[in-house]
């Protein structure tokens, strides 16, 4: 791993500003949020809350590993520093869902949940750096949108508030990734890689979102139409890429 010269950190004003937002934000504590404990076990969504928080524990771990790996493997100074902070965020998220799942389940998180993360780890490991950065950023963005709905599903329970706080962090992680991709895709080498493989990487990311399955599941929980939810996710995703200056050149 190469260490980076000090003047590289703030060479790009916007990239340094994105890092500063994550660096200076006000922290939150899971223990304060769930101090009163989860809803009564007789609550109709108590088991669902346990399962969702269990999956959140493992999903945030996957995000932690992805962010840490990307941080270690880049020589882009503001990206490395930003991802280091994002890695700490993901650890806080995983622990928050872990604390909740233990309370809600009376012991440990759902044991089957880790198996859901294995395809993601395998797929990310096969991608080159820019591809992994794109897919990781996409998954963070879709998760942030999903948390809007899960916050609604678990309104009145501490889990809903956890989703609120986690989502605020995830939005910042998306900004980190989009800023890097927008900068890197305009360099000589990055431009060629993006032109040749960007749409392909985007398709891989879309498959890993399991958007159809998630849309159906969330439709059942929220009383919405699956197709409408799917289009809602896609509309927000495209808006993020456009606002971040990332041109998918014909991506979905």
Fraction of residues in β-strands: under 5%
Large-scale geometry: globular
What's the helix count? 10
Average of the residue pLDDT scores = 90
Q: How many E-type strands?
A: 0
Assign the structural class, choosing from mainly alpha, mainly beta, alpha/beta, alpha+beta, or little secondary structure. Answer: mainly alpha
The rounded Rg comes to 18 Å
Walk me through the structure.
With 252 residues, the protein is mainly α. It has helices spanning 13-24, 30-33, 46-73, 77-105, 118-126, 129-153, 158-184, 188-209, 211-222, 226-243. The radius of gyration is 18 Å and the shape is globular.
Characteristic key phrases:
Ribonucleotide Reductase, subunit A, 0% strand, globular, 252 residues, 74% helix, 10 helices, mainly alpha
Helices, strands, pairings?
Layout: H1 13-24, H2 30-33, H3 46-73, H4 77-105, H5 118-126, H6 129-153, H7 158-184, H8 188-209, H9 211-222, H10 226-243
Helix pairs in contact: 1-4, 1-7, 3-4, 3-6, 4-7, 6-7, 6-8, 6-10, 9-10
Short description:
With 252 residues, this protein is mostly helical. 74% of the residues lie in helices and 0% in strands.
